[in-house]
């Protein structure tokens, strides 16, 4: 059976918050709302687009407006596909993907970002060739922290021994519910202290990841 590493995307492999921030503020301006700070935007990321838009509306005093919410979700998804130019790969992440592949690991992706913008930003950054399986926030009827998307990624890879790598509380809960070890990247968009998040290992430097995966799966 294949050994595999499944990655979260936003805040884990890529710092995409600047693009998400720009898209959100385009939307806010279009609808006459005040812009968000980068910190506001980062705090809304991690649970997918519907949740992101709910956070935007709550912050602007319109939490119960279902029609506006549906409209903003559709417009945001429209903006999302080309929101790639401000996004950067975290230092050492691309090298870690190569090292893991060279060590024989299959690689998969399980993100709450919708699958079309996820594939678009992966291609823009030259990372798409690493991932035979990409599960996005709209791939199934449920999204993380439900374990089903992560389990679908694992099944798609045909893997048994798997580590999930992510940056957020949502990712830690997803891995726990899927019964998989979790490696926490500490430089992403988590909302609280590392100590409050269940994890097998935490790392701040991608150079450490291949060794961590080997140890966790030993
Ligand atoms: O779209 C989001 O809210 C977050 O995406 P992620 O699951 O890749 O962190
Ligand atoms: Mg993330």
TrEMBL record:
Indicate the residues that form the catalytic site: 8 (nucleophile)
| Functional pathway | Organic acid metabolism; glycolate biosynthesis; glycolate from 2-phosphoglycolate: step 1/1
- Catalysed reaction, written as an equation: 2-phosphoglycolate + H2O = glycolate + phosphate
**Which terms are listed as keywords in the entry?**
Carbohydrate metabolism, Hydrolase, Magnesium, Metal-binding
Q: EC number(s)?
A: 3.1.3.18
Q: Name one GO molecular function term.
A: phosphoglycolate phosphatase activity
Q: Does the keyword Ion transport apply?
A: no
Parts forming coiled coils: none
Q: Which Gene3D superfamilies match?
A: HAD superfamily/HAD-like, Putative phosphatase, domain 2
Q: Pfam family of this protein, just one? A: Hydrolase
Entries under InterPro entries matching the protein: HAD-like_hydrolase_sf (IPR050155), HAD-like_sf (IPR036412), HAD-SF_hydro_IA (IPR006439), HAD_sf (IPR023214), PGP-like_dom2 (IPR023198), PGPase_prok (IPR037512)
Q: Which family does it belong to?
A: Belongs to the HAD-like hydrolase superfamily. CbbY/CbbZ/Gph/YieH family.
The protein's name is Phosphoglycolate phosphatase
**What species does this protein belong to?**
Roseovarius ramblicola
């Amino acid at each position: 059976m294949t050994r595999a590493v499944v990655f979260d995307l936003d805040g884990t492999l890529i710092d995409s918050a600047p693009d998400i921030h720009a898209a959100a503020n385009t939307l806010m301006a279009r609808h006459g709302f005040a812009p968000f700070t980068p910190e506001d935007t980062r705090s809304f990321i991690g649970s997918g687009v519907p949740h992101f838009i709910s956070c935007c509306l709550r912050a602007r005093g319109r939490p119960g407006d279902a029609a506006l919410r549906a409209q903003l979700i559709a417009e945001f998804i429209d903006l999302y596909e080309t929101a790639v130019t401000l996004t950067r790969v975290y230092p050492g992440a691309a090298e870690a993907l190569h090292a893991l592949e060279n060590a024989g690991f299959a690689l998969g992706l399980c993100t709450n970002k919708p699958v079309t913008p996820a594939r678009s930003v992966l291609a823009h950054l030259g990372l798409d060739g690493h991932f035979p399986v990409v599960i996005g926030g709209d791939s199934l009827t449920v999204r993380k922290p439900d374990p089903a998307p992560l389990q679908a990624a694992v099944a798609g890879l045909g893997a048994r021994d798997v580590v999930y790598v992510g940056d957020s509380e949502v990712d830690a809960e997803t891995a726990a519910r899927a019964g998989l070890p979790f490696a926490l990247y500490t430089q992403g968009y988590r909302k609280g202290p590392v100590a409050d998040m269940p994890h097998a290992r935490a790392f701040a430097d991608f150079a450490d990841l291949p060794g961590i995966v080997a140890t966790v799966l030993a």
